[in-house]
Amino acid sequence: MIPVPGFEGRRIAVFGLGRSGLTAARALKAGGALPVLWDDSVSSRMQAGAEGFALEDLTAADWSGFAALVLSPGAPLTHPKPHWTVGKAREAGIEIIGDIELFARALAALPEAERPKVVAITGTNGKSTTTALIGWVLKQAGMTVHVGGNIGIGVLALPAPTPGAVYVIEVSSYQLDLTTSFAPDIAVLTNITPDHLERHGGMDGYVAAKKRIFAHAGLSLVGVDEEWGRHMLADLRGGKRPAVEVTTRVPSPLAGEGRVLVTAGLLQADGQGIDLTKARSLPGRHNAQNAAFAYAAARALDVPHEAAVEGLLTFPGLAHRMEQIGQLGRVKFVNDSKATNSDAARQALSSYERSYWIAGGRAKAGGIDDLEDLFPRVAEAFLIGEAAGPFAARLGDTPHRISGDMAAAVKAAAEAAAATGRDEVVLLSPAAASFDQYPDFEARGEAFRAAVLALGATPAGAS
């Protein structure tokens, strides 16, 4: 745990007792604060009470006695309308912050010589893989590394700071909205495409939230394959801020010093070319881009070139992100359940010349409209969940069938792929949220895994 100083003896309202909220309360208490907790969920309140925390109905509390509101990132700060606690805090004139801001303040309170390094990663897609990949590369290079935030362990539940350590933190747009002084040594923006627009009041609000990662950063690594990233890089360079562009486009969309280029499986940086086709867990252009961010971050932390390359090539990959599940005859099964929007699914579909595509769930705005150029790569689509009908209509003449549920889709896709007698890929890349059938994308991915193995597939990595 990372104790949070600065609120000693002061009452702090904490709303939302999920992973980040309860962890924040523990860290505040360890730092000497007096957290006062509340959640709409009775079971969450019971868990907090069992740990000895003070519980108080914040709807009826005297907010003039609070020094701050620590808000769960799941509660809206601005849109579609501010959470009721936001109104209470603003009426009382107290600041509204989140767990990433508490983390930033805990580190800032340390003597400079004792502060660890921080690498922070955000983006619409690829941030989890990039976070895990950076952590892996640094660990393989012998550094003390703690990985968490929006991935895995809540940031304040990570081990306490020690000199020379590196925190590799994934941060969401919701978390960034609740920061004011977060100052990572290296800030990474993988990409920006429309997502979570209802929570940010549109694209401008979403971009503004992502941009907060650079507000106090040392070095910025910016993906510039999308227009919004290019604007951010231009702003950083206009302000004379250290920034490196990462791109897969030739020629590069921007001019200037500081560039990492990755194309056709070749990462070009430091005047050298790195063959990423040897990295089995990083297939596709998007994963090559993730590798470029990891390489640039590692080199900025003085990891030698050879060690950084070795880390990239040995990365084992993440579950539910272009994860090879197994093989049945000549058919390979790939789990990309994390692809909860069309842009993420684009990366997966683009990685294969043809695939038997399992898609569907709870559709997001636009559905699969912008994937039409990739429909020729779809040998056949197998559609599940609420979006099955709309996706079928959008696919038109592209071969498809409505399977309904995961088990049926996997069985039908496997049979269709095997019937060709060729090397084929069955790809789960839903291009939709999971909440119609599953609690999260992880559960959806595990359902895919179970269905594949039930067919008798040999698990990936098995001899």
Which structural traits does this protein have?
463 residues; alpha/beta; nine-stranded mixed beta sheet; seven-stranded mixed beta sheet; 15 helices; 33% helix; 22% strand; globular
Question: What's the arrangement of secondary structure elements?
Answer:
Layout lengths: L10 E5 L3 H12 L3 E5 L3 H9 L3 E2 L10 E6 L12 H9 L2 E3 L1 H10 L8 E6 L4 H14 L4 E5 L16 E5 L2 H4 L9 E4 L7 H4 L2 H9 L7 E5 L3 H12 L4 E5 L11 E5 L2 E4 L2 E4 L8 H17 L4 H10 L8 E6 L2 E5 L6 H8 L5 E6 L17 E7 L3 H8 L4 E5 L1 H13 L5 E5 L12 H14 L3 E2 L4
Helix pairs in contact: 5-10, 5-11, 10-11, 14-15
Concise structural overview:
This protein has 463 residues and is α/β, with parallel strands linked by helices. It has 15 helices and 21 strands. Strands 7-8-6-9-10-11-12-13-14 form a nine-stranded mixed sheet, sandwiched between helices. A seven-stranded mixed sheet has the order 19-18-17-20-16-15-21, with helices on both faces. Strands 3-2-1-4-5 form a five-stranded parallel sheet, sandwiched between helices.
